[in-house]
Structures are given as structure tokens and as C-alpha cells.
Design brief:
By secondary structure, the chain is of the alpha/beta class. It has 10 helices and 11 strands. The strands form 2 sheets. The protein has a 7-stranded mixed β-sheet with strand order 5-6-7-8-9-10-11, covered by helices on one side. Helix 9 packs across helix 10.
Amino acid sequence: METRETRIIIDIGISFKQFLAHLQNFELQLEQFSRLYITHAHSDHVSGLATFLKRSHIPVYTRAKTQQVLFRKYPELRALNERFKLIDKPVCQEKDLKIRYFRLPHIGWVNKPEEDTGEHIGFLFECQDQRFSFMTDCGHLSDGVKEIIKDSQVFFIESNYDPDMQIKSSRPWPLKKRIMGDEGHLSNFQTADYLLELTDEHKTKHVFLAHMSKQCNTKDLAVSTILNKFREHNRQPALKIHTELPKRYFIS
């Protein structure tokens, strides 16, 4: 995520080597970034964190419960405690970028969020009159979150699974139940309903569909589910739906 004055990183779920390769593709240097945000403590969001901390001087921002889970899962991070900055205010300003965080419901294998994900969060980024909403790994969106992100110009939102494919998959039932629960992941149909409610046909320009299951979803199915929902309600959105996720996004 970047503006004219600010560059930040959201999660680092790939190896540090892969991360540096992405930066090189965009002719960026690690030193150009001011902070890294960690949304929650699942490995697919933090697998490159330890090396990132050792190889850079960039502060890491996350919630206190998430830090506690990270230290329990990855004891080597305790020695780098001073690099962590705890998010304790709902809104902060980083140069020209206003950053608002909000909680998202998501659990892992253990039915205790504080023992698994920490305190999972999403974001609303604002720069001048542009609003970018970022949320993945959530079983539903609360009324409070919907009020915060409504009418954003850009939505980065998960569309994780198709219910029929999920039910028919070879996954164990406890995993299916967790994924389809209120603290699991959003299905294509849930995402379609939320986008119908939250997008503005004049303001919203882009939707990025994230965290799509390789086993229980397809890109075409996710997009068609959303488009069909809009057609059912006689909505002809001008927004573009993307299934290839950007490694870099610029707002100004």
C-alpha cells in the first residue's frame, strides 16, 4: 500500500527472499517503507516475519493479543520485542495516510481466538478523498465494520469458498464447520451480499477478491456469483472485479 508520501506493508506470509524479489520487480527498496502491519497470527500471514525483523529496521504494528500469540508460537521473536509497536488507538496518521483499524471475527483450529489468531484486524486507509477497505479471514462483517467501510472506492475482501464445493470436498467436517461459521471465512455468496450492500455505483471503482480457496473455489465462480447478485437487484456496477491480487497498490 502506498501514497505519494507513505509506503506500508500488510502481513508477510511469504518468505523474506520472495518478498525482496517482489520489491525488486517494482524497483522498490525495503528502506522506502515505514511500517509493517500484522493482521493476525496465522502462519500464512507471518511466515516471513522473523527474517524480516532481523534483516530490516522497520517497526511492526499489531494488537497486543496478536503479539502474545506470536511470541508463544515463535519464541525467537521475543528477543526482538522492541521492534513491535502495539496498536492501541482506532485511528492514526502516517504522513498523508489515515489508518483506521477494526476487529474481524476469525478463529483457527482451537476455538479460542486469543490462543490462535490473536486479535484479528482489518483496515480502512484514507488519503485525501480516497478510501481503501482491507479485510480477509473473517466469518462475517459486523454492522459497525460495515458502517466504517461503506462506499469505499476500493474493497480488498476475501471470497474464500463456494458452499457446494466446500460441502463436497474431502476436508474433515470440523474444518468445514469452522470455515463456514461466523468466525471462519466468507463464502462467495456472503461476499456478493456485502458488496451489494456496501458499494456505491458511482464511488466504488475496484474490488479485489482475496484468499480464494484452491480446493473449494474458482476465480470464475467467485466473480459470476457477485455479478449475478448485482443483476438480481438491477444493479449495473461500474466497478472492476479483480481476481489477480496486486502486490502493490497506490492511492492518492
